[in-house]
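Might you be able to review the protein record set out just below?
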Amino acid sequence: MRVLLSLLVLPLAAACSTMSPAPTPSASMAETSGTGIGGRWVGHWTGAGLFDSYRVDDVTVDLVQEGDAAVGRIVMQGTTAAESVPEVLRRGGQWGNQVVARVAPNGVILRHYLDGRLFTVDLKMAEDGEHMTGVVRNVHPKIGLVLSRAPRKLAKEAPAPPPASAPAPAPQPEVAVTPPPAEPEPKTAAAPAERPKQEEFVAVQDLATVQFDFDKSDLRSDARDTLTTHAGWLKEHADSAVLIEGHCDERGTSEYNVALGERRANAVRDYLAQNGVASERLSTVSYGKERPACSADTSDCHDKNRRAEFRVKSR
């Protein structure tokens, strides 16, 4: 019996003696990818705005990198009326949103610092390392980002020290400096004239309303013809100041329509100035959708409400 037991134990011991211990992780596994994403990235985002209108606007990303991770901030312009942009990005405004980034094997993952479910962007780095493109996850219509690395500012070089062998400059004799005569105190500039109140402007029959296309601030050909006539009338009445009112139809948010009405009023002002009307006579205001010319929910009323009106006041 003892002989049989010995025969069974010997092969088992030999097998155990030949097993090597499990390998330990090597230090090379912790090395970073070497992809540099730190610094400022500038570019634009593309997507859809109000009523699926195509949008292109500026975006800036600032990142501070350590290893394959980075922290920073993203600022997207013009997102107020872009409904497909995640809400947290729209509310960020000029301050933007804090982000974290990670260099992945197939690109760069950029997300909100609190939770990637608020927004996450998958970016692909170009071979030159100076450009990144990508899309925001889980939004429709799609929101795309196109980024380029901003040029780095070079520090000014310090002036080179003089050679050690150069002799020290001889001391210069002191020269008495006569102070310049005191300048007379500048005259206090007259305070600028107070801008007339809007209630003081009145409509005139000779300055007809000009119309705009839906969600546009570009001047139509008929609007340019009308404004050319208005410019002639304003040159003949050089003593009048002009208030240009921008208006919109009721579709869209109040904030978006105020901005659109301002662009329409500015387009009219610029055209009149280009046609010889002094710019200091022209002022603008936007009422958005708050003062419709027609209240019915019809296409004809919408056309009438997309307009710029004119009011004048003697200076």
